[in-house]
Amino acid sequence: MNILRSGYIRKFASLVVLTTIALTTGCGKQSSGLVLRMAHTLDTSHPVHAAMEHMAAHLTKASAGQMELKIYPGSQLGSERETIELLQLGAIDLVKTSTSPLEGFIPGMGVFGIPYVFRSEEHFWNVLNGDIGKRLMQLGMDKKLRGLCYYDAGSRSFYTKEKPIQSPADLKGLKIRVQNSQTSIRMIEAMGGSATPIAFGELYTALDQGVVDGAENNPPSLLTSRHYEVCKYYSLDEHTMVPDIVLIGTETWDRLTEEQRGWLQDAADSSVTFQRNLWKQKTQETMDKLKEGGVEIIRPDKKPFQDAVKELHDSFKGTEAGKWMKAVLEQY
Ligand code: GCU
User: Fold this and answer.
1) How many A from CA of 305 to the centre of ligand 1?
2) What is the band of 332 on the pLDDT scale with cuts at 50, 70, 90?
3) Are 79 and 199 in contact (CB under 8 A)?
């Protein structure tokens, strides 16, 4: 009940924030075009934020100023789950989220949280750009969530405070932060750790204060969130490849003209190409910065991690995520 109440309070708070932003913008420079509001949790130094800025610039240019994308980064409007709910309510227009918390709304999205379902980056992108990725993107239409594009979010690996993770045995007794996703919780438990869901925006403090002993994420997120200031061990077991996705609320989409939809989709597509290049470019630089920041990079043998989740894979048989897992495993 308390959790429910605090959820509503936060949602209410976000609406107040939006109203405040609207009033403030009203007092300043006014846009003559249609302004779409987009929320996400990442820092503005993150390559995925740069992609959204690219999308915004492309949209303004393509529409000759008739459409504008206003981005609210850094969890300003709430956690990913909360902003997805705001999207459903029509309080904001777009959200960039990881697909992990989406599984609470669209069970099929849980497939990305199942560890070691992708054999390689090539396999991952064949899935996303092919029939599976396209169908998954549209699965949320009856929940008022329409997918526009996926962004590269690399692979997720463990980072810890006190000791490096060399094998699943090292996770025993450790509290590991996970995203708001049942699949992530089950993965950590299968590997022997104890899973604690915490919103990304609250994680720095949770790590710092010892609420959790570690977390897992891709290199740019470890760097730009500054979690590396607290966690000095990064173990590249690369358990999952969980993409980011841009969603638009169907109420907003339905209000757009065909021309406006075209501008927006083109801007999203252009930002995907931009983002994938930027991600590749930044990979080495990110690892170098982490090392400079005192992070020890560990490259553990992945086999024990893969073995630890074999039963977990079997347990998905017959579920919605399991249905997509089968399709993914059969895809080249
Ligand atoms: C990634 C992802 C974010 C997400 C974060 C998390 O960084 O890009 O969208 O919030 O993981 O672990 O919560």
Assistant:
1) 22
2) confident
3) yes
Task: Give the end-to-end CA distance of the chain in Å, rounded to a whole number.
Answer: 46
> Which helix or strand (DSSP H or E) is residue 271 part of?
helix 258-292
**Domain 156-241+287-331 has what CATH class?**
alpha beta
pLDDT above 80 for 53: yes
CA Rg value for the chain: 20
Closest Cα to atom 9 of ligand 1: 98
pTM of the model: 0.93
Predicted local distance difference test score (pLDDT) of residue 30: 55
> What does DSSP say about strands 244-249 and 194-197: parallel, antiparallel, or unpaired?
unpaired
Fold annotation for 2-20+30-152+243-285: D-Maltodextrin-Binding Protein; domain 2 (3.40.190)
Choice from 38, 96, 98, 203 to test ligand 1 binding pocket (greatest atom count within 8 A of CB): 98
Provide the residue ranges of all domains of the chain, joining segments of one domain with +.
2-20+30-152+243-285, 156-241+287-331
